[in-house]
Amino acid sequence: xxxxxxxxxxxxxxxxxxxxxxxxxxxxxxxxxxxxxxxxxxxxxxxxxxxxxxxxxxxxxxxxxxxxxxxxxxxxxxxxxxxxxxxxxxxxxxxxxxxxxxxxxxxxxxxxxxxxxxxxxxxxxxxxxxxxxxxxxxxxxxxxxxxxxxxxxxxx
Amino acid sequence: xxxxxxxxxxxxxxxxxxxxxxxxxxxxxxxxxxxxxxxxxxxxxxxxxxxxxxxxxxxxxxxxxxxxxxxxxxxxxxxxxxxxxxxxxxxxxxxxxxxxxxxxxxxxxxxxxxxxxxxxxxxxxxxxxxxxxxxxxxxxxxxxxxxxxxxxxxxxxxxxxxxxxxxxxxxxxxxxxxxxxxxxxxxxxxxxxxxxxxxxxxxxxxxxxxxxxxxxxxxxxxxxxxxxxxxxxxxxxxxxxxxxxxxxxxxxxxxxxxxxxxxxxxxxxxxxxxxxxxxxxxxxxxxxxxxx
Lengths: 156, 292
Description:
The complex is a heterodimer. Chain A is mainly α.
């Protein structure tokens, strides 16, 4: 049995990587790999499959995945590489490795309900352009997010 | 004409940074007999949370689905990320009873309950499938046959196809050959300009982390479209539109158009009502060519 079994058992979203036979179709069609040859999704999948996930979770380039799903559409084994990378990002976040920029965006959503807060100024601008004003913030997303594991990361 | 009613889900970007897209969508909907209802209560779709915590994103998406359910309306979105996130959330919640139960326990804390009675559609898909291009074609009063238009779909309009196909989003787009925008361009009479890398991502997903890479990716596509002689690049997503607009040298600008703006021009609507002047890149050259 491969060493990555605990990880694969605990995270059902990672199960599909067992099917990966390293054909590298994911990396060869990846737009990020074309921009930065140091980014290699095939390698991330392999490392996770053999139990070396720590190296993936600590690699800041894990977050370069655009979630464009090109790799997933082309994977001949239906290993769902884009969903695997997403699950690995979630795991990296739990472990405290999420990039500050993404956490900052999430804090805005929790605080304002939107990435860009709608204030009186914005609503006046919208009305000047013939668009309806949007409703004011109620704090509901902050209440919902307080029920999730993400809350601790946003405070931390 | 039967009036079709949808709850308009604006998301974060459109109502603040893409007012031209929003204006044009509202005008085109009106012209085609689609009623867009503004609901209070819609918030961020959840997409910005997904990479950090998929469950948190799902819960936020479910909250939005509940708002539409309470109003008894299907949702129409203008943003690919909103469309993808809400569609996937609705699909997961409809298919997975245990997940639905967990989400409803959390939603109960804010007095909401997900039932699974709404539907999510991108506005382009509503035009493509529910209105149909024949209906639009019959109303074209300003054929755009001297315009050269290149199209960019943006990832989450059609990928992952597993989600959109399972959800029953018609017509089923092919992962390597989506066609809704091509059908729109054909309906307007404009000339469709093909180019390399048409179905590739704009790079927008890296704007927060590596804006240099995001702009390099968008810039590559813009240069390829310019090389093929297009008057404008047509997009269906605010993030794609912003990334393409902000990734160009000031002296060689390519006009970026949101799809309702092109359709609105063909429908003979007043260009000033289509928000062209609110786009980041001026559409003056295109207007000159059309004489409007």
